[in-house]
């Protein structure tokens, strides 16, 4: 949070001084960046280190010190500060914006290049640094400055894209440095002075050790460049930052004589910048050296000054084996841990458990042996392996479930299909003179078709649950009526088996509660159906009690108990498994998908309830579940329902275009429509539907029913063509997508194409009638009632997020896009509608109201949709203008609040 606040409120003062003699602006410059870090012990050490830097009076040398300090801060923010949200590019952009003078210093020029250009820029800067250092040390050199020789030969803009130019630049810079080094060697020998070439190299690479290209500078060193002969790592530099945490400053690392010509600082850099934690310790356990990663993990300060012991840091079991190894100096016994790789777990500085691969080796140096420990963090690797193992287990389970599923479905789907096909064949071949037998055959077909649909619904529900996309709704419903209706519905089936089915409902349970009526119905249907299936005599009870949780909340307890065959104790724990079916003695597995109880349990879990089961074999079973519900302020659900008088006579004379490629579906829909007095035109595909529609005069069709998947031209593409036609722009015809495709992606595509409603096959007659009644609705609404809607009816006046989630399978990304389009488009349409009403352009106002109606209805705001429908219907007719204007005034009153509500819902969704 510190980092964010600092970045929001940081000063944007630009240093405009033409020269900087004082080093104070340097510190202000550095503070600007390290104050962006979150306070920590490591940052405090870095601040102290920066504040103690003694900037060289020579401005050019101080510029190199300054870039080194900046790069250390940048490295800390990017790799050690967990709260920092920026990157290297954003930091360097701030540098140029707020500190243009410092950004113009030559040592900072490297920071604005990347890739191969960064390497060439750094090499050029190195050659310039060498020339200036040589001039100061030797008095003068005959080799010209790099700018005179190299600048015209090198174009940094071409380096990254032109490999030939890049290689040419490398060769030219290296040749220049080699020529300069020979000149330096000649002058030093003539004047009998020390040649500090290697020291200048160490200084320069020290300044840029946090630049990615710094490790490539060694390429530009001439092969015979004079280097230090010392085998130790010298910390000698004109510019040295005090590093109290580094143990390498106070200790020397002995290096083999064969590498004496390699600068010892290279060994320091290698040790300090290893990707793994590294520690060197004596036989006693006293630590001699520790690199940065090891110091950070074990929160060590100065290893040399503090008497730290390795045996205090590692797990006891590892320490015991390690002590045995280091105490054995005979080298004859096989080692427990020395020279081997082991996996251990350690607790990090923040208390988190982390896994490491540890390697401990003997250094075999002269005198007393020393030992090295290397610690490689493998936590992510182990986590990845665990995830992979779980995924593999999931895949195996999925494969087994798929096999079981196919086996079950093959039987369960074929059974009702055989009945349907068999009875249909009998009906087709007989003369059906026996009306009673004919009726029984039709009832058998109907029963089997509904059974098949139930199986398909179970599969779809189970698929949604598996994908985590099944949603629960909340609305007012009469819980007592739901239970009573279900009980009455199952009594006939129970009576056929000679079973008593009774219901006991706690009288104190309120009639109206807030929850998901459909899912409660589904749960009880599964449990009561199972009870009847496995009970052959006796009785079945549905017992409902409750417990008050608070003034607004209650917990309702449901129990379905029977005197059936019971469940064996060893199988009771498996009854909720997917595809599991109970076997009766002497019978094969019971009919069904084996998904009922699995779905039931998940539906209860989704409502934060619990399901338990108990059973005694041969005596019966009991299934109990608890659901937390909200009390409603309504006394009756009738308060929120306006009863509309509907007559099929209202539908007579409507004209509907049906696009459907299936002959039987054409036959069914046409027969249904004709029975309602509706004229129907049939199109065999989308292309034919577009042609028929465009040939008719404007407003000829009241509705288009469009199938999604058709030959020649699919439904979605056909809708797009209709919506894009000039004819549709004059008066938009309602289009209903009528398809067996229930997948959310298909629904999204249909909505984008411009549908008004979406029906799934098999087409429900009542659902289709609802759409048709909506088209012809001409009932007047009491405007006073509209203006004073009850608070409990907010589900019809505000965006119904729960319904949207159910419709689009919890695809919040799509819902957010839908709301964003609504917020972007609706204000323009509303303003246009208001202008048309004000200027009395009523026909155009009617069209805009129709367009807005679809937008509100798509979001579940039926109240606004109804008002807009009345505006659309009335305002364009001479006798209905005043009525339309009244509805418009009512719509204006709730428009702003509606738009605000959608904005709030959108913000809430984006925060999730």
Entry keywords:
912 residues; Beta-Lactamase; alpha/beta; extended; 31 helices; 7-stranded mixed sheet; 50% helix; Helix Hairpins; disordered N terminus; 5-stranded antiparallel sheet
Please provide a written account of the structure.
There is one protein chain. With 912 residues, this protein is an alpha/beta fold. It has six domains: 2-220, no CATH class; 274-377, PAS domain (Beta-Lactamase, 2-Layer Sandwich), CATH 3.30.450; 383-466, Helix Hairpins, CATH 1.10.287.130; 475-640, Histidine kinase-like ATPase, C-terminal domain (Heat Shock Protein 90, 2-Layer Sandwich), CATH 3.30.565; 648-774, 3-Layer(aba) Sandwich (Rossmann fold); 783-911, Up-down Bundle (Four Helix Bundle (Hemerythrin (Met), subunit A)). Strands 6, 7, 8, 9, 10, 11 and 12 form a seven-stranded mixed beta sheet that branches. Strands 2-1-5-4-3 form a five-stranded antiparallel beta sheet. A hairpin with a 7-residue loop joins strand 4 (353-362) and strand 5. Helix 15 (379-429) runs antiparallel to helix 16 and helix 17 (479-496) runs parallel beside helix 18 (517-533). The protein is extended, with a radius of gyration of 41 Å. 29% of the residues are buried. The modification Phosphohistidine is found at residue 850. It catalyses: ATP + protein L-histidine = ADP + protein N-phospho-L-histidine.
